[in-house]
Amino acid sequence: MVRYTVKKRKKTRLTLRILGLFLATFFGGMTSLFFMGKYHGHYIALVFFMMFALYGIMLILHTFSKTAYDVTYEFDVDDFSIKSWRGTKTYPYNAMRDLNHVIPDNENIYSIIHFYVGRENYLLPFSYRKELADKLYIFLNERVTSAIIGEDLRPPKAPEADEIVDGEAVVKNSKSEKS
User: Fold this and answer.
1) Which parts of the chain register pLDDT below 50?
2) Strands across the sheet with 96-102, in order?
3) How far is the C-alpha of 177 from the C-alpha of 179, rounded, in Å?
4) CA distance 73 to 2
5) Residues 99-122 pLDDT 10s
6) Helix (H) or strand (E) holding 139
7) Which one, of 96, 81, 103, lies nearest residue 145 by Cα?
8) Is 3 buried (19+), middle (13-18) or exposed (0-12) by CB count in 10 A?
9) Which of 82, 103, 105 is nearest to 92 (CA)?
């Protein structure tokens, strides 16, 4: 089993929340003053005030997302788990798609493993740990390809009674029809 934790700083979340609260209250107040008739500016200023207020709200909402907290990835032989502050989710390797290993020009500084599970994408950054990133990518690539190939080589299951297969209805013969 391979376990890797992506750490996030609590101070960053707090800073973004304070900045978002400031932007939302200040520019939201300017927007409300405009609508109350106390600010006689241009309408283009109203658009900018509203955009900055919405940006502040977006910053606040983003700090409560799953990626703003620590995420622990546990890669077993058969499946992998993603633990965040919202709970633990376990997936088989054939659910992982588009596995990439990003290596920059100066490969000693950082390396990134990027993959999708469903509609969510995950980044595993490795700062000054290229060897660990290479080993983990090889491990994941072997597991994902064997899960996909193993899934493709399975024989197709027999259709059930009255099941539609490739646009044609398939009906099983009952025992009474055979005799």
Assistant:
1) 163-171, 174, 176-179
2) 96-102, 110-117, 120-127
3) 6
4) 8
5) 888 888 776 788 888 998 888 888
6) helix 130-152
7) 96
8) exposed
9) 82
